[in-house]
Amino acid sequence: xxxxxxxxRTGVRPSGQARTASAxxxxxxxxxxxxxQESGDRVAKMLxxxxxxxxxxxxxxxxxxxxxxNGKVLTTPAVKVEPGDILTVDGAVITEAEPARLxxxxxxxxxxxxxxxxxxxxTVFERLPAGLPRLISVxxxxxxxxxxxxxxxxxGLARALEMPATGVVRRYRARxxxxxxxxxxxxxxxxxxxxxxxxxxxxxxLDKAKEGPQGANLWITVVLAEGxxxxxxxxxxxxxxxxxxxxxxxxxxxxxxxxxxxEVEEVGPRVIREQLAEHIAPQNLPKGDRPLWKKPAAAAAxxxxxxxxxxxxxKSNRGGKPQRRTRTASPSGEPPAKKAYKAGWAKPKxxxxxxxxxxxxxxxxxxxxxxxxx
Length: 374
Description:
Pseudouridine synthase; 15% helix; alpha+beta; single chain; flat; 22% strand; 9-stranded mixed beta sheet; Alpha-Beta Plaits; 5-stranded mixed beta sheet; Structural Genomics Hypothetical 15.5 Kd Protein In mrcA-pckA Intergenic Region, Chain A
């Protein structure tokens, strides 16, 4: 392949080159490299939408000479791809990007919202189930926060939902230690500046307070539309509260619902068209009504959080009352097989059935009934 640097399409001139009449773009040269600058998307955006890599990773692929357009290796990401152009990575042709998809994910604590963490901590994308496309997060949740995290394959949709100008409402529930009144929380509706950073209007409601020797444990519902970095924690700390648990309950029209920690559920195409059409390019809108991905069976995913296991004594592992045993289906969905007995083993005898009402019947083999007394 031939290394190509095209200043006419990228707008970048080699160092030391002056702006002269001969440096103006020629129609022939522009046509040879796929057209002008008026239409098409940049190569980094195209590859990111196709699920190849993030835009930053695409830039590194281009620097390594692994991306080519119409057979010519690119040296800059500032190149637009026109309809009909052939884009390849390591010689493999990149097909058109799939329509926009959106997933609801219940992020547990101790996971970083990132594809890679320099400190080697576990990330959200490492824990996602198999079979999902390449996804990016809509906003972030810090490592100590939990709750709803939206994931999408459409970078434009993610940016639109993150921008404060869009006004997408986020709702959180925070547990904090300290003392505060509802009147003090109401002052956040006018906005607040913390360490030089101004935060917009925040609606905070005091739900429950429990007094203790070292202060009060508070539950506060927080509703905001900006979503700046660690906004809830910093704003409440400015009021003298220490947040020790933070749960995101909803993001725009999408709620956490009954998702258990670590579970993923795809939003249906019809819901995406009804709720997010204004944030998605018309050509990227999904079709149909049913999601493309189905979550694995619950039986194969292990016990759900909060489930009570039963020991052999018939008592729960939480020290409660004896609970009734229930049979569970196998991961394949078939009922559990009956226990097989080897030859020569004594099978358990069935217990006799004694009627609840009327005269009791004697078991077979017992002594004959005594005669009634006069």
